[in-house]
TrEMBL record:
Localization per Swiss-Prot or TrEMBL: Mitochondrion membrane
Gene3D superfamilies: Mitochondrial carrier domain
Family: Belongs to the mitochondrial carrier (TC 2.A.29) family.
Keyword Signal in annotation: no
Protein's name in the database: Solute carrier family 25 member 45 isoform X3
Membrane topology, record value: Multi-pass membrane protein
Coiled coil: none
Solcar repeats: 73-169, 178-265
Organism the protein comes from: Nicrophorus vespilloides (Boreal carrion beetle)
Amino acid sequence: MKVRQQTLGSSLWKAVQMTFVHEGPRAFFKGVLFPALMTGPSNAVFFGIYGNYMRIVQSQGDKEFFRVQKDDPEWMKHVFWGGCTAGFFQVVVTCPPELVKIILQCQTEHKGVWHIPHETHYHGVWDCVRKLFKKRGIPGLYKGVFPMMCRDVPTSGIYTLSYELLKIVNYPIEKLNHPLVKQVMAGGCAGVLSWSIVIPIDVIKSRLQVDSPDLPKYKGFYDCFYQSYRAEGWGAFTKGMGAVCARAFPANAAIFVTYEFLLDFFNTL
């Protein structure tokens, strides 16, 4: 629904209503296969690079490595740049599946009164990948990679830094200081914070990725920004925020709880 809000210019309720009425409940799951298959590998890339970056820059000779070193004035800088570095390499993995997901999610098949101009019909994930690759090769699978880098690289640093800081906060309510509760709170809040900051760039990215390659509406990143602002005002750049934040808290809480569990598990081996 977030993608349809951003690209078709509707409210969340209208997007849900139109999708259900004209395409049925199955339409809510369009394009989920490819990103679902890539969730594990992409998170492995992100946390693998982040963890190794921190291990390298935080190592002090023969001393034991600690992920959190509050007494080190360089610690917060390392956490931020470690997240940015991890975010860069994660985009390399996630750009093609995200492009395919967005194209399929915006494919209304002209069943409703809304649709993307010059919409191309794809028969599922692999048909979309095959046709994109056949038409434009590898670069065709990386359409929108620049705005995706702008979206994910700096906010990945904010994401890791906010998580690590929130995890060491002492809450006034004692029950909130349980390690698992802290992981849930820190992971969920880090996800909401990073996504709420980056929604404007996400709108531009989504619109560029669904734009027709043969008859493009936008000339590039800045032209998309200008046309969107001129047509819809600043409100264009907040579309999808409610849906994103509602998803971000539980999704990122689960990611960090799993991350911490696996770290503890492998450290005991």
